[in-house]
DNA sequence: TCGCGAGTACACTGATCTGTATACCTCTCC
DNA sequence: GGAGAGGTATACAGATCAGTGTACTCGCGA
């Protein structure tokens, strides 16, 4: 469940490989990107890629884990920056706003799950962990803020969040709509 | 925008190809499934597949269009079966409940968009049309029911719907949570 | 000075990919 | 009875796929 702490430090070439692969996988899809292209983009030989990661599947998992680590960092920062416990509950939606201003191809983890149906794929676990972590974070924050029914509220906020990020590429204003509704839900659950 | 009406009728072999391909694409991902496997599964030669559809990309679009047609039928039936104009607004969530009891790999159209980033891909258009149609249907139904702010309400319902279907494979109860919240939103927008 | 880890260079395997060529069969409809 | 549409059978082209083998270079630390 923990993300990023147990990862071995990357060599310079390993770093470049992950960076290039992460971008390519996100922009074009995982299955559609070959290891030859990743090696070329990162200025590295295919031999080095396989010496570092062993297989394409492992590289996919490493890329998702790295993205998850970076995303959780942003979410935690948004939570820490919020002015009150109630505000903290919707802080992930603030992080989402800045996140989607950079990444306009939807959620990399949902996209990965679309391409990796096999639960034994190492990337599958990383993606599902990212989702469960967010749902649990909502519950934790809702409980800390003294919201009524924190578990049900957390699931609602989670669904809203995922719907927003998944439909963001359609440019229908879903991120703003979801954030507004989320704030209303938290406000309603905090009154009394 | 219209779905299914302008499609040429399929030959028996064409029918089997679409059926087999639709299932394989959904279960394993579009890029991961080759035309040889589709031909084998549908008991047809590859020659016939290419005589019918011309290319894999066209077949992908045909499969998505067929799925869209079937899904809209179910949604329209749910709308027609609802007891009141207010109930009709959340009818797509009822259709979603039965839809996701059959299909547990999330939304085929969001999954397709994850794999087909190129807007020139014929399947890309089919998928985005499906999404816009649903959002517009929500607005139409909300307007007919006399809801306040039908456009903003429609976007909220749409985000909820997409979040539910996208996260349904995670088994976190998102479909029920989304349906409940949707009903509350419509009720709140109908009072007065 | 020596060993070792990191990385390069490059050829190569075997499988799989989309798509095509050619020849033939069978049914229906005019 | 002849044409054409729908389909079969099979072989093939050319590219790309993930992954390996082998021999080399460079820099650093014991």
Automatic annotation (TrEMBL), chains A, B:
Cross-referenced Gene3D superfamilies: Tetracycline Repressor, domain 2
Domain HTH tetR-type: start-end pairs: 11-71
PROSITE patterns reported for this sequence: HTH_TETR_2
Xref: Pfam families: TetR_N (PF00440)
DNA-binding region in chain numbering: 34-53
Keyword terms of this UniProt record: DNA-binding
InterPro entries on file: Homeodomain-like_sf, HTH-type_TetR-like_transc_reg, HTH_TetR, Tet_transcr_reg_TetR-rel_C_sf
Keyword Membrane recorded: no
Official protein name in the record: Transcriptional regulator
Originating organism: Streptomyces griseorubens
